[in-house]
Write a structure and sequence with these properties.
Helix content is 54%, strand content 10%. The protein has 344 residues and is of the alpha/beta class. The relative contact order is 0.07.
């Protein structure tokens, strides 16, 4: 087990949160990052651990480690490592303006925090880390010729005037992720269509696309289609557990966008495919849905009407040594028994 200590550069004997932290860092951090930072401040002088924090806030240990890395990149704490790469110390750093006011205060107070089998942190590539932008950075961004168009597009999709924090996110997406205006347009439309209009969600989608090499709206459409929850609903309905391929996701988009079918109709076709074949279930379901589309199906009631039509009895006269009677698809065995008994 690797132990390390957490230090604060200022110890006031209370949990102190600077105005600078609230003004400059609070809006950009997510819930996990804020909780970890505040909890570390609170636990100065007390023992804690990553697993304790994970249990306390109902996060995974990886979430806690990511939060520590986030604050290190924002220079509000520093992590110290031994020769083997294990964390042996954490130093909490007060924002510069507060630190300057408290240079004559008490020395560092250690906080013992244990890391036992600390999980590997899958960090975002350095290129995708959001910088801390200054007011001058925002002014320079607003002065660009194309920025007014980007801000206008965003405000139309989100239905609000953008805050400085929102504009920082747009600056990050354009300057760090290198999204074109067309791709930002598609990104905002995609998120707004899902009723996800906060920039934390928008940023996470943008980073995911950037990590997957998305540079055009067409590529974004294909990437988002693979991870659409409807695709996974269809995969489960067809008895498939693997990640969907582009072709499989394309089938689902065709059924929903071209045929205009709702998910209940699509899953009905999937269930019939599972009952009919073990192979090529997507193609089989596609043939069913294509026939339903050609028949003008718009609801499950329409499907029931088609089923009833094909179940309608068709009379065939059959000569036997006993009697002539009608053969039907749905046999009435009681009636057949009466006919046979009369012949006896």
């Amino acid at each position: 087990m690797s132990n390390f200590s957490v230090y604060r550069d200022v110890d006031n004997g209370c949990t102190y949160i600077s105005n600078q932290f609230i003004d400059e860092f609070l809006a950009e951090a997510n819930a996990a990052q804020i909780k970890v930072y505040l909890y570390l401040l609170r636990m100065t002088g007390n023992a804690t651990s990553v697993s304790d924090m994970a249990d306390k806030f109902n996060y995974t240990e990886k979430d806690i480690c990511r939060a520590l890395k986030y604050w290190e990149k924002n220079k509000l704490l520093s992590l110290n490592y031994d020769i083997d790469g294990s964390v042996v110390g954490v130093r909490l750093i007060t924002p510069a303006s507060v630190q300057k006011m408290n240079t004559q205060t008490k020395p560092f107070v250690p906080v013992a925090v244990s890391f036992e089998s600390a999980p590997e942190v899958n960090e975002e590539p350095e290129a995708f880390i959001k910088p801390t932008y200054s007011a001058d950075d925002l002014r320079a961004f607003k002065d660009r010729d194309e920025t007014s168009q980007i801000i206008f597009i965003a405000e139309q999709y989100l239905g609000k005037t953008l805050s400085p924090s929102d504009i920082r996110s747009l600056l990050f997406i354009t300057d760090v992720l290198h999204f074109s205006t067309d791709l930002i347009d598609y990104l905002l439309a995609y998120c707004a269509d899902k009723d996800k209009k906060n920039f934390r969600y928008i940023e996470s989608v943008a980073i995911n696309w950037a990590q997957n090499g998305v540079t055009t709206p067409e590529q974004a459409k294909a990437a988002s289609g693979r991870y659409d929850k409807n695709v996974y609903t269809v995969m489960r309905a067809l008895g498939k557990s693997a990640a969907p391929t582009d072709k499989e996701a394309g089938f689902v988009r065709r059924w929903m966008n071209d045929f205009g079918f709702s998910m209940d109709i699509i899953t009905e076709a999937c269930e019939r495919s599972v009952m009919s074949t073990d192979k090529n279930r997507f193609a089989y379901a596609d043939s069913i849905l294509k026939s339903w589309s050609q028949a003008g199906v718009a609801s499950k009631r329409d499907i029931e009407a088609i089923d009833a039509k094909y179940r309608r009895p068709v009379k065939k006269t059959v000569n036997t040594s006993f009697h002539q009677f009608d053969m039907k698809h749905d046999y009435d065995f009681d009636e057949m028994e009466k006919v046979l008994l009369k012949r006896e």
